[in-house]
């Protein structure tokens, strides 16, 4: 029995060639249903999900190949790395692909491994969890203590006011957004703001 996750980070059990997702949790057990629909086969596990209590019915679906398990394990590793490392996400993706090819030389990754553009949204969401949410107004801007010091604990926010050329400041800020791979968050925030302004104009 092996655990992986879906592209939306939901837990998956891999058991005897079949995959199961959580159906119901009880006080002393949990019930998992076959991931392939309309197959209704289920597993009952003890609360800690370490042992199987009961296996119901017979599968009407075909077993999954080992390729799917390998791909899901790689995606789990990618998500973990995006939260722990600062490497660009496309680079992390490429490195994990290479690991799979080296570790499984007989597998054709091009036929079963998800493309970057199909999983990058979930990877960027994972990375965004490391950063404070973007404030909508200057009054809502609160910088957590951990973001006020450098790697060695020295303060790096040394001024309370911004003076000088606003264009240069904007360019510097945009470079930092690109470095942290937060472009999607900024574009999404701008789109929501534009939509809100447009709706307010229509109402008035």
Automatic annotation (TrEMBL):
Stated name of the protein: FLYWCH-type domain-containing protein
